[in-house]
Amino acid sequence: MPDEAKRKQLVLDYFDRVNAKDIDAVCQMFTVDARIEDPVGTGPVVGAEAVRGYFQRVIEEFGTQDTPGTLTGSQDEEHVAAALKATIRNPQDPNGGRLAVNVTSVFRFTADGLIAEMRAYWGATDVAPAEGV
């Protein structure tokens, strides 16, 4: 099992890959049966094909840029929680405006350092027009 510092670094690597818009590199960080729920309460996507589709949408359609904040480890040797601000294209704005979303994502890792699950917590009050973007 990766130690806490290694798990935190893997989360930072994940954000770097998302921000670089490298779908292949992002997907390589996940297990073949990975589960993503974003936001929690909307139902998960499960499996390699669904995960790839999720990231194609996140990266290509929404143009997501993530700015991680505090990373918090766990004592179960599996999880890391990451506070972040996601800046995305506003799908309802024909002028290409962007939204800022306050998110807390929780990652669960396997013993070999792959992401088995990612759950993103955010609600309607966590979304606002992005300023200066």
Structural class: alpha+beta
> Segments where pLDDT lies below 50 for 5+ residues?
none
Largest pleated sheet: 7 strands, mixed
Number of strands: 7
Q: What is the arithmetic mean of pLDDT?
A: 96
Proportion of residues in extended strands: 35-45%
Distance between the termini: 39 Å
Portion of residues within helices: 25-40%
Q: In sequence order, what are the helices and strands, one letter per element?
A: HHEEHEEEEE
Number of helices: 3
Shape: globular
SSE layout:
Layout: H1 4-19, H2 23-27, E1 30-37, E2 45-46, H3 48-61, E3 65-73, E4 79-89, E5 98-109, E6 115-121, E7 127-129
Parallel strand pairs: 1-6
Antiparallel strand pairs: 1-2, 3-4, 4-5, 5-6, 5-7
Architecture overview:
With 133 residues, the protein is α+β, with helices and mostly antiparallel strands. The protein contains three helices and seven strands, in the order H-H-E-E-H-E-E-E-E-E. Strands 1, 2, 3, 4, 5, 6 and 7 form a seven-stranded mixed beta sheet that branches. A hairpin with a 5-residue loop joins strand 3 and strand 4. The model has no long low-confidence stretch (mean pLDDT 96).
Task: List its traits.
133 residues, alpha+beta, 7 strands
Could you give a short description of this structure?
The protein is an alpha+beta fold. It is built from 3 helices and 7 strands; from the N terminus they run ααββαβββββ.
